[in-house]
Amino acid sequence: MVGEMKGTTSPPLVSLISATQQSLSPSSYASRPSSSLGLRPSAAVLPEVSGMAGAGAEEAVVGESFEFAFDKEAFSDKKLRVEVVGSDDAASRKRRREDDKSDEGECVDSSSIVMAAPILRVTTMHINSAILAAKSPFFFKLFSNGMKESDKGQATLRIADSEENAFMELLYFMYSGKLTPTTEPTHLVDILMAADKFEVISCIKLCGQLLTSLPMTPESAVLCLDLPYSISMAPALAVAAKKFFAERYKDFLSTKLQDELMRIPLAGILAILSRNDLGVLPEEAVYDFVLRWADSQYPNPEEKRKILSSQLLPLVPLVRSRVRTIVLD
Predict the structure, then answer these.
(1) Cβ atoms of 162 and 112 closer than 8 Å
(2) Can you name the residues that pair with 83 across neighbouring β-strands?
(3) pLDDT digits (tens, 9 = 90+) for 287-313
(4) Which of 22, 43, 199, 204 would you call most buried, defined as having the most Cβ atoms within 10 angstroms of its Cβ?
(5) Cα separations (Å) of 246 from 42, 198, 239, 270, 271?
(6) Cβ-based neighbour number of residue 227 at 10 Å
């Protein structure tokens, strides 16, 4: 979709950029509309969403589209150099929302791991700084405070290779107000994480709406439970995921479900065991189920003991009743 683009530099959108820098400040940006720029309101305002009928069937559009300007030199005033580095994919799915600070504006890194990793490839794109700043406080701060005087024509971001597709999708969203239609929850969660990292509130909300409109599966429910609660949509998605697990596995002691349940990650098992009606089930059967699940998931005895004692067994009625008896005695 994007790649290295070469050509003569067109005149920057001076008036638009100047209006952005003069009328906004980092402290007031998130709460002020961008109507003075001739743009739609900022991402902090509730987005106008259309095309939500049937996730993946149509493109959901948020606000007004500037898709015509995406990676177009004629409508751009800067270049964005995206350095893609290698990373551990599993680790990169964890939220690394530390304050991303620029090295005097020359480069912004996701984490120290990303900074130290070797560069795999570089993509250079033409960008309109006013459009990106109007959608993202992250980019507003980068363009207004974080760039060297001698290098105002280019900004550099360094991202992990596992984040690349989601970041490019997010960048496209900031221009077009829409995401590529998909029914794959993992892809939506990746975009959601990227939107949170780069502070694109309207995209966070859209991803949350699309995720809740998709049919829930055990895999997507676990993804929702693993989201950091600092993401605005995470609590609502977690509630939906817990409800899904409680309803799907209401007969979790049934022998026909055991093979499937042994593959459910810890977050899903915790959701199942947190049911309010767990006490009506045979206590010893629940206890045996928890031990069997722990045996299948944690071959390391020390790790298994820690998970059982700190997270699983306190939810088992048999254990809770015995603890209360000991305390009373």
Answers:
(1) no
(2) 122, 158
(3) 999 999 999 999 999 999 999 999 999
(4) 43
(5) 38, 34, 11, 10, 7
(6) 21
Contacts of 124 by beta carbon, 8 Å cutoff, 6+ apart: 3, 4, 5, 79, 80, 81, 82
Half-sphere exposure of 16 (CA within 13 A, CB side): 18
Give per-residue pLDDT as tens, 250-289: 899 998 999 999 999 999 999 999 876 776 788 889 999 9
Torsion of CA 322, 323, 326, 329, to 10 degrees: -90
Token pair of 287 as six digits:
């206890």
Q: What is the pTM of this model?
A: 0.69
Residues 267 and 182: their CA atoms lie apart, in Å, by 25
Maximum separation of any 2 CA atoms in the chain, in Å:
84
Interhelix angle 283-297/317-328, nearest 10 degrees = 110
Q: Which token pair is 120?
A: 């795999």
DSSP conformation class of 281? S
